[in-house]
Amino acid sequence: MTDVTITVNGEERTASVPPETTLLKMLREDLNLTGAKVGCDVGDCGACTVLVDGIAVNACLMLAGQAEGKKIETIEGLSTLEEYHPIQKAFEEVAALQCGFCGPGMIMSTKALIDQGEELTKQEIKDALSGNLCRCTGYTKIIEGVIDAYEEITGKKVPEVNPRAA
Amino acid sequence: MKPFDFVQPTTTDAALAALAEHSPNVRILCGGTDYVVELKHVAQSPGVVVDVSRLEDLKGIELTDAGLRIGAGVTHSQIMADKMIAEHAPAMIDAAHTVGAVQTRNLGTLGGNLVTCVPSMDSGPTLLALDAQVTILGPKGTRQIDLAEFFVGVRKTALEPDELLLEVIIPSENLGKPAGFIKFGLRKGQALALVNAASAFRIEDGTFKDVRIALGAVAPVVMRAVKAEAVLEGQAFSQELISEAATVAVSEAKPIDDFRASKEYRNSLIEVGTRRTLEAALQLANG
Amino acid sequence: MRHRGKGVGCMWYPIGFTVLANPSAATVKVNEDGTATLLTGTVETGQGSLTVLGQIAAEELGIATDDVHVVSADTDTTPMDTGAIASRTTYVTGNAIKLAAENAKQILFEVAAPMLDVRPDQLEAVDRKIQVQYFPQRCLPIADVALQAQFVMGRPPIGSASYNPPTVAMDSETGQGKPFSTYVYATQCAEVEVDDETGQVDVIYMSAAHDCGTAINPMLVEGQIEGGISMGIGYALQEEMLFDDDGKQINPNLTNYIMPTSLDMPEIDVDIVENFDPTGPFGAKGVGEPTAVPTAAAICNAIHDAVGVRITSLPATAEKVLKAIKEKNGGEQKALPAAE
Amino acid sequence: MADDVKVKEKEVTLESLRKADDDLRLPAVPERTLFPKEIGVAAAREQTPAVGQRATRPDGRLHGLGQTKYIDDMFFPGMLHAKIKRAGISHARIKSIDVSEAEKMPGVMATVIGKEIPVNSFGPSYQDQPLLADDIVRHAGDGVAAVAAVTEQQALDALEKIKVEYEELTPVYDPLEAMKDDAVKIHNNESNVYSSKTIKKGDVEKGFEDSDHIFEATFTTQMVEHVPMEPHASIAEWDANGRVTIHTSLGRITLGRADISRTLELPINRIRIIATVVGGNFGGKNEITTEPILALLSKKTGRPVKSVYTREDEFISSTTRHPFVMEYKTGMSKEGKIMARKVRLVCDGGAYCSWSETTLGKACILSAGPYNIDNLHVDAYAVYTNKTMTGAMRGFGAPQVCFAYESHMDDMAKALGIEPVELRLRNTFHEGSASPTGQVLEAVVVRDSLEMATERFGWQEWQK
Fold it and tell me: Does domain A2-77 sit in CATH 3.10.20.30?
């Protein structure tokens, strides 16, 4: 067993896990943070997306030991007792999620994207979400939610483009 | 996953020591986007897994006398965001962008992509087209070889079990060399390559010079289409010649027939990919 | 060269099981403060059906969506339901809920009638009030009536009901009969761009006009249509379970089973065709399945329009499209040297 | 030699690691999720009338906060993990199954094989599917045994120790081959055709005679998966009163409960199914899968038992969409009126019937398209093959036939020189049209939908 200490959502946590434990398994089974989901367990679906030192990763592809000492953000850490996180709020308002299983991963990818502070186009948003598979929504309302949240958080606008223009 | 031991050295010396100590029951882990997947499916424990993701020597992108040095542990996302790469080898950014999705690019490393050495790797063709070299660190010190020699076979490289890939170097004379990269996959996002192609050349006095055409996913390892290069080398540039080179490239490749695509279809893509990357490079050459 | 093309796909689709009974039952309990609890045995599988069913109960009781709490999917506590299948939830379960709410409302009316000095059949439930038809000023808050019903009259306003769509068995020789109570209709149009050298098809834009009777919740209807289109795009262009000679699946993973990502989705415009089905709850029918039905047809017709090839076997992969283009061009296509 | 010694030492370490893993690791204190205690409600939820409002979803809020508990997010004290051994062979007779070695593996608490299931068959139309194959394996994804162990890895390791002896049988994968008289029979039936449907309306031969043009075409479609993002998952817990509570990702709990009751020979009132929230269905979660197996494992061990399909399980052993072979023959007048249509549908029904009966029926009725056709003849067949079973999936046969009849329509439009949308408008159902089954249709808006979608598209003015 290895002792792994990580900072999760601002709080230092330690768990004793076998070396072959993934960060995902440690979060879900040892820290009881079940927001990140097991959708494929091989890095295809993105349902387990969490932020490690601010970047989006598939927690199923990172060994817990590799996360030692790092800052982990999960879906459970977004909202506070004071604030409903604007991404979560926007997703609720446009009904971005249907079955919801992809939701936590989708939202964490969105957070990583918006946190970068870059100006975003719709194409860049699609690109940033292409590692998060969703079967219910056709991504349409999810992208709508991301745009709303981005505009709310940054005060900037995502430019309108007509894909049909040759 | 089958149980294994995990070591996480913080210096290259410690990493080499760990490799030496546990060889041959030892494997190197860096980004894990490929190897952790493999670990989940293997029937036998690898024994010891050495995580090299914390080695400072594997990090960083910098200009040296030799050229542009990219640490083996640099992630695809870091490549995409790097200003020096954007300036000196922009085709690498196009290639990095086609690797998996954001999450894969954030974890996956350039070195890992090369070491895994699957035919469909996305980093290989551009680097081959730019005559990249790799530095290998072992118990006896470092050695430098051409990337072309590094690729030995499917999932087989020139790395010895006790060695470590340290860095990739794009020689200084090739910085800014016009190059194009294209990837054909089965969908727009998160696709494995059916065919990858990269081309690079200079135009001097209206003729093609130092032509490089590299193809991925069309042979056991990423390969150069040397006959196709020869079609162009030293010739005055013309569209017909580019098309001819693309046709010749097809004859050099040995793509497989599998469930993703037939050999015939891959051949069509090799032709189109070679032509389009040559055209892209030409556009850059013409400014 | 890239070629644009347009294509249309039109369809019809039934609601509920083919002839077979597929009943739903429901219980609606109006609480003493005028809010309500709905018990249904159907399962929320992502569509938002619980929200829609809550809206149906709320509508019948004249209260708001938020006033209804929905309890579902527990065989110990919720009534029989055939389940989330056959695009039947809004229509069949919805009808059962509407009837159950009507029964609960009837108790409220009977309690309110003497309070308002009218007959129960002269009342209606609107805006959280029980009021006299055509005399909106003669009203009582539904909360007051519910409280009265429960604690003074001793008649808790609880209603239960079931619904099964009426069908007529099909003749075994000719199939003549009435297999379904109702049908929905839809059209989708696709604009694609086809690369004639690689066969790659980009779906650029889709418009979709779907009939679902009354849209109980237009936002959720749109979500169904957009999601159905994405499934249709995968069906049209990429997805296929492949087997080896021993009957084992070659691609049982999301790396090699190619379902659409966000980058593969076009812009979509959704329209809901105005319609009212008198047999459905407040005119509603259903929308779940039909959304995935005409997409592949529209896309394949657009490919045909763009490059003149007819794909007769799905999926229309880039390889298949390129092969068809080459066959069509026959000798025109430059022959490639045969690789060893 | 020195290396060998080292490896040996290693194995001891690994073994001890595994032992340490034997202890159930359950979180002592649940982690908290923060959120403001007073999140406002969207106006649309507060408004009357309720119908027509773009009301937000209360469950959607929980999804976004990561608070929704799907089955895999539930951990009960003492809970075991179950895994199913798949046959990996598409057609075979099982000679023997030996689980004795598996039962000795660390952490393994119980195993189950098909013969232990009281009634080892289920299915919505025909009960032709075993929960675990006990005699004949009919597709490679068929389960043959189940293991419950303390950890998932222990269960997986134990699967490797299960020995199954097979006698290989000739497989048949192509539905057209499987229809032939001399084809190997997958079930103990006279024919592999297990369901057929017919619709006859008017006089189709006369209709062809009256036509100016006859068009024929054949279309085929592939097998696809639902790919719900949440794989099938269940937890079963047998209690002291002989009741079993099952948390499951099932879309139709009432009928699922009846299936479980039948397979376990247990009174319905001793079964409780809680489906809470299902992470995507699309028709794929309309049948029981492992529930009775988990119930038995729970009964044997006195512990809750959980099973979550891997993505691979999801592909190879859950239902899929039917591949179809569709032959169309349509007679047209030169003005573009459909005079007659003959359709033959063959649906690859996979190893078990599942929802194929229903799919075939719907496909048969819908195959004419939303068009007035006075003379129609449709024959449809569902055929067993040694492939993953095909079942309910969003559209029940409709996406297949729609692809065919709409592709066919465009080809005819081109041949007749009639604009494709115009050709459709000349034939669409209208209020009071008689369907292929003679049903008088009401609330028909197919024309409206055509006009609306094409107008939004900009069909008329669109240029390449």
Answer: yes
Complex confidence, ipTM: 0.96
Fold category of D175-225+320-457 in CATH? Aldehyde Oxidoreductase; domain 4 (3.30.365)
Task: Identify which of B214, B211, B234, B210 has the alpha carbon closest to the alpha carbon of residue B274.
Answer: B214
Omega within 30 of 0 (cis) for the link into C337: no
Decide if pLDDT at D18 tops 50. Answer: no
The C-alpha atoms of residue B229 and residue B248 are separated, in whole angstroms, by 9
Q: In whole angstroms, give the CA distance from residue B23 to residue B160.
A: 10
Confidence at residue D199, expressed as pLDDT on a 0 to 100 scale: 98
User: What predicted TM-score, i.e. pTM, was given to this entire model?
Assistant: 0.96
Instruction: Identify the pLDDT of residue D23.
Output: 45
What is the count of structural domains for chain B? 3
Upper half-sphere CA count for residue D31 (Cβ side, 13 Å): 26
Q: Domains of chain A: which residue ranges?
A: 2-77, 86-154
Number of compact structural domains in chain C:
2
Kindly tell me the number of DSSP H helices and DSSP E strands found in chain C. Answer: 6, 11
3-state DSSP helix/strand/coil percent for chain C, to nearest 5?
35, 30, 40
Residue C194 included in any domain: yes
What are φ and ψ of residue B61, in 5° steps?
A: -125, 125
Residues C157, C260, single domain; the answer is no
Question: Does domain D80-169+227-317 match CATH 3.90.1170.50?
Answer: yes
- Where are the extended beta strands (E) located within C119-238? 123-126, 129-132, 135-141, 158-163, 182-195, 201-211
Query: Nearest-CA distance from A7 to chain B in Å?
Result: 18
> Best of B6, B7, B25 to disrupt the D interface by mutation (most D CBs within 10 Å)?
B25
D286: buried, middle or exposed (CB in 10 Å: 19+, 13-18, 0-12)? buried
Q: In this model, does residue C334 exceed pLDDT 60?
A: no
Instruction: Name which of D176, D406, D426 to mutate to probe chain C: the one with the most chain C Cβ atoms within 10 A of its Cβ.
Output: D406
The pLDDT, as a whole number, for residue B13 is 96
Average pLDDT of the residues of chain A:
96
Query: What tokens appear for B258 in the block?
Result: 């599998």
- Residue C239 CB-half CA count within 13 A: 25
Which two three-digit tokens encode residue C229?
């289109």
Collect all residues with Cβ–Cβ distance below 8 Å to D240 and sequence separation of at least 6.
Answer: none
CA-based end-to-end distance of chain A: 59
Question: Whose CA is closest to C79, among C161, C166, C165?
Answer: C161
Out of C289, C327, C332, C340, which one is annotated catalytic? C289
Local structure of residue B287 (DSSP, 8 states): -
- State how far residue B9 is from chain C, nearest Cα, in angstroms: 32
Q: How far is CA B120 from the centre of its chain?
A: 9
Question: Token pair of D113, please?
Answer: 């094989």
Is residue B24 within 8 angstroms of chain D, CB to CB?
yes
Pairing of strands A55-58, A49-52: antiparallel
CATH number of A86-154: 1.10.150.120
Residue C277 domain boundaries: 2-14+180-329
Distance from CA of A125 to the nearest CA of C (A): 9
Q: B 55-74 residues with CB below 8 A of D?
A: none
pLDDT of C138 strictly over 50: yes
What is the SS3 assignment for B12-23? HHHHHHHHHHHC
Using CA atoms, how far residue A125 sits from A94, A129, B55, B105, C222, in Å, is: 17, 6, 32, 16, 21
CA atoms of A15 and A27, how far apart (whole Å): 9
Sorted by where each begins, the domain ranges of chain D are: 80-169+227-317, 175-225+320-457
Contacts of B190 in chain C (CB under 8 A): 261
Sort out which chain B residues have CB atoms less than 8 A from A23's CB and list them: none
The span from the CA of B60 to the CA of B72, in Å, is 9
